[in-house]
Fold this sequence. Notes:
With 251 residues, this protein is an all-alpha fold. It has 10 helices and no strands. The protein has helices spanning 2-24, 37-67, 72-95, 102-122, 125-148, 153-179, 181-205, 207-212, 217-235, 239-247. Helix 6 (153-179) packs parallel to helix 9 and helix 9 runs antiparallel to helix 10. The longest helix has 31 residues, at 37-67. The chain is globular, with a radius of gyration of 21 Å.
Amino acid sequence: MHNELKITDMQTLESSKKTIEESINPVSLDLPDFTTDSYKDAYSRINAIVIEGEQEAHDNYISIATLIPNELEELTKLARMEMKHKKGFTACGRNLGVVADMEFAKKFFSKLHGNFQVALEKGNLTTCLLIQAILIEAFAISAYNVYIRVADPFAKKITEGVVKDEYLHLNYGQEWLKENLATCKEELMEANKVNLPLIKKMLDEVADDASVLAMDKEELMEEFMIAYQDTLMEIGLDNREIARMAMAAIV
């Protein structure tokens, strides 16, 4: 009996060891080959997008603080987090020996960037928060969650840390819009009509590169729309309003 117990314990130990090893080196996942030229070529653009996205976010939060100066400390803290993320993603590219295509990334964000700048100039805080703290953050969270499952070990660890922070940023915009919904709903819905379709176009633009990284375009869009609609619900919009806003993504 004692020997049987020991054998069982040994089997349990081996099984646990195997589970731990699989979680470190998942054999069941169909991971891409991170060393191929095609992977590195696609990664040069995807990596540039996340680096530029974090830089844009930093600049946008600093700009938003000019519209709500009493929130300067909190927004500066969020901006600093974005620069930390930028450094992390820059290290991910360096780890794979990839030079990020920053020229591509600047063009990729140019329309959203332009719309943010116009809203900032007009003092349209609701539009600025929709673009940065809702659309871009929901886009980032959904993309990072999909990427984590197929990332190289170094990038996976970095991205997991970033996602935790991004939820704080999404929450910041969500809470402000929730508190001010009575006065900002009309602008929110108008800004959504203009800017949500851009996210769909952006996803379409990088679909081929994302596919090389084993990220499916349909899954990316589905994850984004779930995150976006959940946020709108938290802000306090009803189901009909959320459905009307979501329709802008497919019109």
